[in-house]
Design a protein that fits this description.
The complex is a heterodimer of chains A (148) and B (161).
Chain A: E1 3-15, E2 22-27, E3 30-31, H1 33-40, H2 55-62, E4 67-75, E5 84-93, E6 96-106, E7 111-119, E8 127-135, E9 138-147
Parallel strand pairs in A: 3-9
Antiparallel strand pairs in A: 1-2, 1-4, 4-7, 5-6, 5-8, 8-9
Chain B: H1 3-7, H2 11-18, H3 23-32, H4 34-45, H5 50-61, H6 73-84, H7 91-99, H8 107-121, E1 124-132, E2 144-148, E3 156-160
Antiparallel strand pairs in B: 2-3
The chains are: A mainly beta (148), B mainly alpha (161).
Chain lengths: 148, 161
């Protein structure tokens, strides 16, 4: 079974083509649901009601993201070579599954990064949002985010 | 000298690779070699330390002669391949020094060390995929945001962001 090194949810990641080093940008630690809701569920709302220069407007705008990236890094253990693993990212909003995505992978090298990029966001509600990464049905890692 | 290090200096070991003219083939053969794997285990367990490697290379280089093919070039190449797959602290400095040598006598070892450094950089595999969530968020980026210009007083603009 592969050994997890780290698991993070961020807004974006970048892998340097020359050095193969990874940079993780804007690790997601909280969501501002009001900002998302104002922007998505009430499209008719006038921007004048959400002045971008006000403190309130800024905090709301910080919550608006268009997607996220899940990065899990695994070290290959003995017997993992050539084996196929089923990765799965599940989002639990207050212990209710709101999204799930499978991603099969094989550990080609000693160290392997599994990078899942998501465009868009699932429906979430205020409270605690858990990003759970499972390998072959077993929880390998999780990342908890507060939703305001 | 450690048994694992002694093996890679033997005539039998060197003879296996001396007849292979393709450097990539030498590199791949060394990667599959049991002697190299034994070296890697010895590095991982700490049986071979930096001091051992230092003493070993010094000993080998005593037979170095300018203008003559270095007899233990394949031994150094094997050491480079063994260090490539290990996390010992002296692996990178050793490989870097060896790869930067501009000596025709040890050309095989230098070029194998260059390959090893390249392989170390790409040791981490990236398995990446993009998924689209069926109900994406539509942020009204095109909505008009009125604000006052700070440069021109009493003038208002409508700016599309």
């Amino acid at each position: 079974m592969p050994k997890l090194e780290y698991f993070l949810i961020s807004e974006s990641v970048s892998v340097d083509r020359e050095t193969n080093r990874i940079s993780v940008f804007n690790v997601i630690e909280d969501f501002h649901l009001t900002g998302i809701h104002l922007a998505t569920q009430q499209p008719g709302i006038e921007s004048a009601e959400l002045p971008p220069n006000s403190a309130e407007g800024k905090s709301r705008l910080q919550g608006i993201i268009s997607g996220f990236v899940a990065v899990a890094c695994f070290n290959r253990e003995e017997g993992d070579e050539g084996r196929k693993f089923l990765g799965n990212l599940t989002l639990r909003s207050n212990d209710t599954v709101c999204f799930s995505q499978d991603m099969p992978f094989q550990l080609e090298n000693l160290r392997n990064r599994v990078i899942m990029r998501f465009v868009g966001l699932p429906e979430i509600s205020a409270g605690v949002l858990r990003f759970v990464f499972n390998v072959d049905g077993k929880e390998a890692a999780s990342h908890t985010v507060n939703v305001f | 000298m450690n048994t694992e290090l002694e093996v890679i200096t033997s005539d039998e070991f060197i003879g296996k690779y001396a007849s292979v003219s393709n450097l990539t083939a030498v590199y791949r053969l060394l990667q599959k070699s049991d002697s190299v794997k034994a070296l890697q285990s010895a590095f991982a367990s700490g049986r071979i330390t930096e001091a051992h490697v230092d003493a070993f290379t010094r000993e080998l280089l005593r037979s170095y002669k300018t203008g003559e093919q270095f007899a233990y070039s394949f031994s150094l190449a094997a050491l480079a391949v063994a260090l490539e797959g290990t996390d010992v602290h002296f692996a990178h400095p050793f490989l870097k020094c060896l790869s930067e040598l501009e000596l025709a006598e040890v050309a095989v070892a230098c070029r194998i060390a260059q390959k090893a450094i390249h392989a170390r950089h790409s040791r981490t595999a990236n398995i990446s995929r993009v998924f689209e969530i069926s109900k994406p968020v539509h942020v009204p980026l095109h909505s008009a945001v009125p604000f006052k210009s700070e440069l021109v007083e009493n003038t208002e603009f409508l700016v599309s962001v």
